[in-house]
């Protein structure tokens, strides 16, 4: 997977190449000796780490590859074992207040390696929810960053926060990996050597939204003989995506008996583009009653639980709400729309009403946000004629909004590609009407 899926990470590689070049120049110091690669499972973090490893091999820079796992003792053993490959035998760790023999052994081994001139430490699969492991990594990095010939790259499904060691946090650069864009997907098809026509490539892109793991699963199945334009094969491909991507990867931290309930809840929460605690409670009580909590206050802890166990629910500051992260959200929506089309429409209809109701109770930025979400959900739940009429009524009402709110609405709609895609042919009508309001 690492070699075939590696496309369109030029910006990340440039930063890493600069760091490796600095390592080779003893007159310069690394400005960012720690880089964190952040993104959902299957987005390409490990593939990028393999590229770093390959660059180290080509430039004769010692490189240590580790899997974070669940216990720091295992991580420490991996470090010591790989350091020995460079004919370095770490001594026996003695108690010196650094935080235990595992930490001392790792610090000593990596220091000995770095003292030879330069070295790179790659730490894959860091569990951002494992507080004990994070504290251990913090202490390790605190000691190692005193050596200016060591470069560290971490990979985690969600952002690792080093709260206790500010010296570490200040020296870390976060690179959040997103899905591949359309040109990169085309480059991927070429690397795969899969003869797909334009219609088939469009289908793969629309289904996966550039999610590397989903693209690998889907194109592999097509190569194996499944035809996405045949109904029976189409259903089989969707089931394969659900099994390989959702159940085996996104839900892998859960016990098998837990997965159906969490999958159903994540599918539900993928329909809104953002949700707060009020929306979370009302959605659950109407559509997923088995997740109903005894007290409204209990819903406060549910997003954190979902984040820790699945790593795909996050707070989005720009959206002022929680959301299932892209492109996992789009995969859930694809499966929901295909397997439960009536529920898909019912959820959008309910959410349109919910946002319209709240838009009538607030003003300013909050009202604009609710109006956009009302439009988005209406696009999936109304007949074209009704949607067109609602857009006309909205355009007629906008001049009565405050000038600042009206400008905000116009700008946000223009930048909201997902909304325009959902509106389809009606998007041009909306954009034309908004342009007329500016004159």
What does this protein look like?
The chain is an alpha/beta fold and 439 residues long. Among the domains are: 10-176, P-loop containing nucleotide triphosphate hydrolases (Rossmann fold), CATH 3.40.50.300; 182-250, no CATH class. 58% of the residues lie in helices and 9% in strands. It has 20 helices and seven strands. It has helices spanning 10-24, 45-58, 72-84, 101-114, 131-144, 166-169, 182-192, 198-208, 212-223, 231-250, 259-269, 277-287, 302-310, 328-339, 341-359, 364-381, 384-397, 403-415, 417-423, 425-437; strands at 34-38, 63-67, 119-126, 150-156, 172-176, 313-316, 321-324. A five-stranded parallel beta sheet has the order 2-3-4-1-5, with helices on both faces. Helix 8 (198-208) packs across helix 9 (212-223) and helix 15 packs antiparallel against helix 16 (364-381). The longest helix is centred in the middle third of the chain and has 20 residues, at 231-250. It is globular, with a radius of gyration of 25 Å.
Question: How is the main sheet built?
Answer: 5 strands, parallel
Unreliable stretches, pLDDT < 50, 5 or more residues? 93-98
What is the distance, rounded to the nearest whole angstrom, between the alpha carbons of the first and last residues? 53 Å
Strand content: 5-15%
Helix content: 55-70%
- Could you say what the CATH architecture of the domain at 10-176 is? 3-Layer(aba) Sandwich
Q: How many extended strands?
A: 7
What is the CATH topology assignment of the domain at 10-176?
Rossmann fold
Shape: globular
Could you give the order of strands across the largest sheet? 2-3-4-1-5
Rg, Å, rounded: 25 Å
**Mean of residue pLDDT?**
88
CATH homologous superfamily placement of the domain at 10-176: P-loop containing nucleotide triphosphate hydrolases
What is the class of the domain at 10-176 in the CATH system?
A: Alpha Beta
Order of helices and strands: HEHEHHEHEHEHHHHHHHEEHHHHHHH
Structural class: alpha/beta
Annotation field: number of helices: 20
């Amino acid at each position: 997977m690492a070699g075939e899926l590696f496309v369109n990470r030029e910006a990340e590689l440039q930063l890493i190449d600069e760091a490796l070049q600095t390592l080779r120049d003893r007159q310069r110091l690394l400005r960012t000796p720690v880089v964190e690669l952040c993104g959902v499972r299957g987005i390409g973090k490990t593939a990028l780490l393999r590229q770093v490893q390959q660059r180290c091999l080509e430039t004769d820079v010692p490189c240590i590859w580790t899997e974070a796992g669940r216990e720091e003792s295992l991580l420490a053993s991996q470090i010591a074992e790989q350091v020995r490959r460079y004919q370095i035998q770490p001594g026996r760790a003695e108690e010196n207040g650094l935080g235990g023999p595992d930490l001392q052994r790792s610090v000593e081994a990596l220091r000995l390696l770095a003292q030879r001139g330069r070295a790179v430490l790659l730490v894959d699969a860091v569990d951002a929810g494992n507080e004990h492991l994070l504290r251990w990594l913090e202490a390790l990095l605190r000691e190692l960053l005193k050596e200016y010939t060591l470069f560290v790259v971490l990979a985690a499904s969600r952002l690792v926060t080093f709260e206790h060691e500010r010296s570490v946090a200040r020296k870390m650069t976060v690179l959040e990996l997103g899905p591949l864009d359309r040109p990169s997907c085309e480059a991927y098809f070429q690397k795969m050597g899969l003869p797909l026509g334009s219609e088939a490539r469009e289908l793969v892109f629309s289904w996966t939204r550039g999610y590397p793991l989903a693209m690998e699963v889907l194109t592999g199945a097509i190569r194996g003989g499944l035809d996405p334009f045949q109904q029976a094969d189409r259903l089989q491909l969707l089931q394969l995506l659900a099994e390989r991507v959702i159940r085996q990867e996104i839900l892998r931290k859960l016990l098998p008996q837990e997965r159906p309930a969490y999958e159903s809840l994540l599918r539900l929460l993928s329909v809104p583009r953002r949700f707060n605690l009020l929306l979370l409670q009302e959605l659950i009580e109407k559509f997923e009653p088995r997740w109903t909590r005894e007290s409204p206050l209990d819903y406060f802890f549910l997003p954190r639980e979902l984040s820790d166990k699945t790593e795909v629910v996050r707070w989005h500051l720009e959206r002022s709400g929680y959301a299932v992260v892209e492109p996992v959200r789009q995969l859930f929506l694809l499966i929901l729309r295909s397997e439960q089309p009536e529920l898909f429409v019912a959820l959008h209809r309910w959410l349109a009403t919910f946002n319209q109701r709240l838009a009538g109770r607030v003003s300013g930025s909050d009202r604009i946000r609710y109006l956009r979400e009302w439009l988005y959900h209406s696009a999936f739940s109304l007949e074209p004629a009704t949607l067109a009429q609602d857009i006309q009524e909205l355009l007629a009402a906008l001049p009565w909004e405050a000038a600042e709110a009206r400008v905000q609405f116009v700008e946000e709609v223009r930048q909201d590609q997902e909304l325009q895609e959902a509106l389809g042919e009606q998007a041009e009508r909306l954009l034309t009407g908004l342009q007329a309001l500016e004159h």
